[in-house]
Amino acid sequence: MECVTILKATGKKARNIHELRTLIALISDESLFHHTYQYFLKGHILEYTNDFAHWVAESLEERALSERLSNVDPFAFKDIPSLRQGLLEEIDDFMEQFPEPRDALPGDEFYFNETVTIIFPVGIQAKNLAEFLLAIRYVDPACVYYHFYEARIRHGNDDFSAWIEEVLGNPELARSIRAIDPFMHNIEGIRMHIVDAVENNVRHAMEVITP
Amino acid sequence: MISQYSGISPKGDLILLKRLGDKMAGKSFLHINSTKAGGGVAEILHRMMPILEELGIQARWEVIEGDEQFFDITKKIHNALQGNREIITKKMWQHHFDINKKNLEAIRLDDVDAVLIHDPQPAPLITFKKSGKWIWRCHIDVSNPMKEVCDHLFQYCGKYDAAIFSVARFTKSMGIDEYIIPPSIDPMSDKNRELTKEEINETAEKLNLPQDRPIILQVSRFDKFKDPTGVIEAYRMVKRYNDCVLVLAGSPATDDPEGAAVLALVKEFARSDPDIHILLLPPFSDKDINALQRMSTIVLQKSLKEGFGLTVAEAMWKGKPVIGGAVGGIPLQIIHGVTGFLVHSIEGAAFRIRQFLNNPEMAKRMGEKGKDHIRQYFLITRQIRDYLSIWYALESGEKGTSGLRI
């Protein structure tokens, strides 16, 4: 499966941290979902892990808050309201220490968006590890996103490791894939690490002498 | 036609296009704008129509006609929407409406399943809606418009089923769903297709350009907001450290009375430096522009104000390292430090040019990443995919925020 998203404007924008805080508290779940979970679908800068952290650093130059927001793991929250609360707590804590934030330059405000997400099958099937390895090298980045990131919202983990453990019965490889930190790589990096994990697992299996 | 894009466009885009085509097969999709030639809208519509047809959709493109007064009025509306002070009288608004009404003699609006109206000129046609989903496609920045003009025009726009803008910051709330779909380039067009070495050399010889030193290029109209004199200043700062050639290439814009004055100023500013080449290319010089971009070492788009700035995507598609002003749609194309550099000053532009010239490996790496970024997000197949997706979402009545399955 693969997913594509089309942006939809909410008409709401923030010029500074106060307005960002107010709008994070009010904005729809869909908008919050887009600016956090779907950040990984973009060709993003590795320094940040969501749109809020990105904007706070690049447009407001509030590096300390950006670091704190980047450290918020959306997958660690049970639902969007809890994630919202987590983000607000980081901002509130920062604002207590630095109550007079600056404004972004005109045109550089934070624009809150939502998305229309379209999910569709890409017609690629893997029946074994060899087919999986071939497919993972060449599928679109959006396909890697759907199965590695989006899957965590559906069942708490990525689809690849779940399939490798449940269908192929290879818990060791599943563990290696689960150990890939979703925040530390862009999609191409994730793809490369999955390929490495599969190849290492196959190499290791070939080297082991079974009695 | 669509098979031409296999191996070029992302496979997922082509699969989704096919699936959307299957859903919409036999339905009619009408586009209406105000010019058949010239400008990015017409350029992309020319390429889009045959692809839609091939997907099984009955695609139709109509152009509204008007007198000189009509186009004077719509130019004023265009300028006012972008924040300039203009006077548009009741009589002028009436003429705008009357001309749209008159166009109904030639344009059939019955039995259409979807209508995409491009820009303000044909916006009043919504008054005569008979069937289908109507979408207003706004290609300009209306975020800081002249209020009276905006309020009047939005009386029409607010009646559409949805609107589409190119960039989130270009939007203005109208009380209807507003989507963000960036424009795109066509990798198969003369401006972007692969060229042979002979074709590139032919252009270099024709334009008398040396190829023995790095070429820094900016392709744009001679407009003060493209900062051509700032580009020359940056080149002069670089020239103290690195030998290079500067090429400023643009076409005369018939609708821009300031163009000639800016060109004269740029020529004077260049002070007969033999390494500065100022090229006034005739309209439809797509292949030459393609060749210029391909023979360049670095491509600049040092705009101070910009619409979307698709020349950036064109250069990135050719794998060139790019430096752009952080305005309009340029930051969507250039991820700073990843697919190129965004700059805010002449000094910044000079510094980044020197960085690229002295680090060819870095320039190559960013160029490659830039090309992949354009492949993923800025090709025509993605734009058609998005148009059809919105049409499908509007027809199905689903918001699609939790995932619309096709």
What this model shows, in words?
The complex is a heterodimer of chains A (211) and B (406). Chain A contains 10 helices and 2 strands. Chain A is mainly alpha-helical and 211 residues long. Chain A folds into 2 domains: 116 residues, no CATH class; 87 residues, no CATH class. In chain A, strands 1-2 form a two-stranded antiparallel ribbon. Chain A is elongated, with a radius of gyration of 20 Å. Chain B is an alpha/beta fold and 406 residues long. Chain B folds into 2 domains: 201 residues, Glycogen Phosphorylase B (Rossmann fold, 3-Layer(aba) Sandwich); 181 residues, Glycogen Phosphorylase B (Rossmann fold, 3-Layer(aba) Sandwich). Chain B has 14 helices and 13 strands. Chains A and B meet through strand 1, strand 2 and helix 7 of A and helix 1, strand 6, helix 13, helix 14 and strand 13 of B. Strand 1 of chain A pairs antiparallel with strand 6 of chain B, so a sheet runs across the interface.
Q: Give Rg of chain A in angstroms.
A: 20 Å
Assigned CATH architecture of the largest domain in chain B:
3-Layer(aba) Sandwich
- Any idea of the CATH class of the largest domain in chain B? Alpha Beta
Q: What is the H/E string of chain A? A: EHHHHHEHHHHH
Give the class of chain A from helix and strand content and strand pairing. mainly alpha
- Based on Cα principal axes, name the global outline of chain A: elongated
| Count of individual beta strands of chain B | 13
How far is the first residue's CA from the last residue's CA of chain B?
23 Å
What pattern of helices and strands is seen along the backbone of chain B? HEHEHHEEHEEHEHEHEHEHEHEHHHE
Q: What is the fourth-level CATH superfamily of the largest domain in chain B?
A: Glycogen Phosphorylase B
Describe the sheet with the most strands of chain A: 2 strands, antiparallel
The tally of domains of chain B stands at 2
- The rounded distance between the terminal residues' Cα atoms of chain A is 41 Å
| Strand percentage of chain B | 5-15%
- Global geometry of chain B: globular
Going by helix content, strand content and strand pairing, the class of chain B is alpha/beta
Q: What value does the average pLDDT of chain A take?
A: 91
